[in-house]
Amino acid sequence: MNSINTEGLVQPANGFASAEPIEREGNKATETLVAKKLTLLEGVAMIVGTNIGAGVLAIPYASRNSGFLPLFLWLIVIGTITTITMLYVAEASLRTKSHFQLSGLARKYVGKIGSWFIFISIFANSTGALIAYMAGSGRLMNQLFGIPNQFGSLIFAVPAIGILYAGLKAIGKGEKYISITMVALIIVLSLATIFNVNTKIENLMEGQWSYMIPIIYLVVFAYSAQYIVPEIARGFAHKPKQLPKAIVIGMICTFLLLSTVALSVISLAGINEVDEIATITWGRYLGSWAALTANLFALCAMLTSYWGLGGSYFTNIFDQFKLGSETNKLRRLTVLAIISVPPFILAYREMVSFGRALEFAGAVGGVILAIVPILMLRSSRKHGDLTPEWQCNRFITSPMIQTIIVLLYSFAAIYAVCDLLYNIDLLPTSIEEMLISLNVFVPK
C-alpha cells in the first residue's frame, strides 16, 4: 500500500516505470499528482457538485417536446449506467499504486490510443461545459443585477478560477459548502412550487414519448462525474472503501436533485413556457424573491460543476503531458490559463450558445466513457498492481450489462452528431419521423 506522511500527502510508490509520471527536483522525487485526504461528505459533494451544473438548468428545456415522464425515465436509466461506469473506474483506480487521472489510467491499462481518446473526451466535455458556464453565468448575473453579460461572466470567473488554483482540498471544501447551500435553496423553491396557484400536476403529463430520443445526450452530459473518480480516489487513499460509497451516495443525490428541479419547473410552467435556463422560468413564476433564490442556485450549480470538471481537466493535462509536479506555481498558472481563458473568450464573444455547447460536450464524451472504462476494468484485473479491498460485483460487470452500456451510449453519440445536420433537414426529430425516413431506403 502507499504510505501517507503526516501532512496527508501520498508518497510515490513503485509501479510500472513507463506509466509513472515522476520527476526529479534536486535529490527529491515528487509525484505529479499528490493526494490530500477527503472526508466522505467532501467526496459526495464533489460528485454532486460536478453533476449539478449546466445540465440541471438545460434539461427541462430540452424536454419541452417529450415532457417530464420520458425525461424521468432517462434520468433513471442513464444515472444507473453512469454509476456503473464510475464504479469500473473506481476499481481500476484502487488496483493502481500510483495516482493517475482518467487519461493516465487509460494509458496504463489500455495504451496510448485509449489514453488520447479519453483525453479528447475530457477536452470536449470540459471545454463545452466551461463555455456554457461562462455564458450562463453572465446571463444569470444580468438577470440578478442588470449588469452586462460579459461583465457578469468576469465576476463569476474570479472564484471559479481561484479555487481551481488552490487545489484538491479547497475544491472539496468548496463543493461541500456550496452543495449544502444548493440543497437548501432547492428545498425552499420546491416547497414554494407546491403551494403556488400555477402549479398543475397535469403539466407533468404533457409531451410525447416519441420525442424522447433527442434528450439522451443532454442527460448523459448531466451525469458528468466519471472524470473526477480518479481525483476523488486520491483523496480516499487512506480509506479506499469510502470511494464506492461516495460514488453511489453522490449519484443518488444527483438523481434526486435533477428530478426535483425538472419536476418543479415543468409542473409550475408547463413544457411550453420553460426558458433555456430553467431557473429563470422558476423565478419568473414565483416572484422576485424566488428569482433571486433560483438564480443564486443556478450560479452555485455552475460554480461547483466548474470546479469539478475544471479540476479534473487541470490534473488530466498534467498527467497526460507529464508536466511534472502540479505544485509548481508557474506550470500551475500556465495550465489554468489554458483551461480558463479560451472558454471565457468564446462566451464573451458569444460565439457558442449555451445549449449548443452542452450538446457538443455530451455527444463527444459519452461514447468514449462507455467503452474505455470497460476495457480499463478488464485490463486492471489482469495487470493491476494491487488486489483492492473493494471490487465491483459480478452483475454490474456481466457481458449483458456492458453490452447495454456500449449500445446505448453509442446510439446517443451517433444521434447527437447527426443532430448537427438538423438545419439542413437531414435528421428526423421524433421516432415517427425517423421510421418514415428509414422507410424510404427499405424495400417493401
UniProtKB/TrEMBL annotation:
State the compartments where it is located. Answer: Cell inner membrane
Q: Which residues cross the membrane?
A: 38-59, 71-92, 113-135, 147-165, 177-197, 209-225, 246-269, 289-309, 330-348, 360-377, 404-424
Name of this protein: Amino acid permease
> Mind listing the UniProt keywords for this protein, alphabetically?
Cell inner membrane, Cell membrane, Membrane, Transmembrane, Transmembrane helix, Transport
- Give the classification, highest ranks: Bacteria, Pseudomonadati, Pseudomonadota, Gammaproteobacteria, Cardiobacteriales
Q: How does it sit in the membrane?
A: Multi-pass membrane protein
Tell me the organism. Answer: Wohlfahrtiimonas larvae
Q: Which domain of life is it from?
A: Bacteria
**What Gene3D superfamilies does the record tag this protein with?**
Amino acid/polyamine transporter I
Coiled coil ranges (UniProt) are none
